[in-house]
């Protein structure tokens, strides 16, 4: 009987789970009983052990306390073992940690920031560990310290350290040999994948990533991004809106969406909010007038006109708040929202074409990808598919700071009847348009293309600026057939193959001593060459182009050189005959608050002014009329006042 007790239990009680020797032994040891006494008393049975416990001031009858002591002892032993293991771990070097970060990000296929079971196994093998398939589950559970069902990067690094500590010298030698003999994985040698990982972890869509990769590969290819003069021909003739003879078809409006690009903050004018929130006419901002245009068109046509904004993360909240407050009835029919968001692109280090890094402010590692992002943003957000599902076929796109770009039924009808997949509105170039992109024909294909100033070689700049040679500029008012756009995007596997422009800047725009970076941008109008011979361009009057890029533009727009029509359009006054005044303000008026010091009582009359130049500090009083060419020159630091009166072809 005693022998059986020694092999099984030592306390015969009514308990379903009698105390074990290990539990009793740990309990007595914790209460100060010497191990020799426990061993000597063990064979004498329960009563003797009870007496021994009594000498230490405790009792075996409280089985819960006995078991708790055993559990605590085991936990203490495990903690001591863990601490000893931690102390023996070899810290990872910065180089190792950087490599494991690359591996972790590469195998984190869904960009979740953690590895699942399958991803974990691939990362282990890549890191030099060779677990059997049957071992992976146990190792995964060991690595998943917090029990979340996934392994984050810190857990992964710690697991590698523990795994290495358990290896024999022979296993470590074999893995080192395998690592030396194996070729380096692509994620260590292919710079494109570093951008892909960065964009995935930032939550960028597949379409945004694919578009950036297309642009980056153009940069890496060392192929020229320029369009030299000998590669193009001027465009001599185009159909003009005023010559079109079509019967406007109002029924097309129910299949049309009007889209405004609204992602710009207007930082070049000293703004930290959407440029479209600038007051233009009285208290009306750009966005107020746009909303009024849409509502007027809906009312006048007796039907619906879908309206969309392509906002950025910086402009969305303020813009949508204004529309919700001022125009609660602006919402679209069905479930079509009023906005979708543009993408962001990583800046590229000019030194080695790697992802730019700026730990002081990681947000500065990103930039807008240009308005050519329209296409991947529509694709990635699901907006393109949703529009087609809800029965929309045509889309009119323009900038939110161009209040002349309204929904024109004649243009819409012409575009629909033409069967073209894409059409660009152009206007006749004047001296004030020398820097804007112009229309041309490819010498290779004969098709239409857009050449921006950033794509013009230095030796061709004079011919680029020749408004008699290149007569038409892109207004950025575009018409698209959504079915044709979807087909083009699918053929390109989600990418519109636009030419890329590389703009050199500093990673921190306010710190000119910060690292040089390249910002890769595309223009949405450049898609005219992607649609081939079927793409069209049409000459439209200057009244459909009234953008604000500078405070000079803003001054002109606030003056009587422009007027607001009953349809809430801002157009050049008829007396201007389609030619805007040229406004040249010096750098002291670059920002909107600085412009306010120049015209505290409102804009002067510019109705008959051809050119206004302002150099130095001035205050223009109410009632000032400028005519012809006027110059205001003040070399001092003290502001000079321009009193009310008419100033014609004068220099003050």
Question: Into which percentage range does the β-strand content fall?
Answer: 15-25%
- Could you list the spans in which at least 5 consecutive residues all have pLDDT below 50? 1-16
Shape descriptor: elongated
Overall average residue pLDDT: 88
Task: Give the beta-strand count.
Answer: 27
Strand order of the largest sheet: 8-7-4-12-16-13-19
> In which range does the helix fraction lie?
25-40%
What can you see in these coordinates?
It is a single chain. This protein is an alpha/beta fold and 652 residues long. It has 22 helices and 27 strands. The strands form nine sheets. Strands 8-7-4-12-16-13-19 form a seven-stranded mixed β-sheet, with helices on both faces. β5 (279-281) and β6 form a beta hairpin. The longest helix has 26 residues, at 63-88. It is elongated. It starts with a helix and ends with a strand. The model is unreliable at 1-16 (pLDDT under 50).
Task: For this entry, give a set of tags.
alpha/beta; 22 helices; 652 residues; disordered N terminus; 4-stranded parallel β-sheet; 7-stranded mixed β-sheet; 27 strands
Task: Please render the helix and strand layout as text.
Layout: H1 2-7, H2 21-30, H3 35-42, H4 46-55, H5 63-88, H6 94-107, E1 114-115, H7 117-126, H8 133-143, E2 151-152, H9 153-166, H10 169-181, H11 186-189, H12 191-201, H13 206-220, E3 232-233, E4 256-262, E5 279-281, E6 284-285, H14 286-301, E7 306-311, H15 316-326, E8 339-341, E9 345-346, E10 348-349, E11 366-367, H16 374-381, H17 383-389, E12 394-399, H18 409-418, E13 422-428, E14 438-442, E15 448-451, H19 461-464, E16 472-481, H20 482-491, E17 501-506, E18 516-521, E19 536-539, H21 551-558, E20 562-564, E21 570-572, E22 582-585, H22 592-598, E23 605-615, E24 618-620, E25 624-633, E26 640-642, E27 645-648
Parallel strand pairs: 4-7, 4-12, 7-8, 13-19, 22-23, 23-25, 24-26, 25-27
Antiparallel strand pairs: 1-2, 3-14, 5-6, 9-11, 10-18, 12-16, 13-16, 14-15, 17-18, 20-21
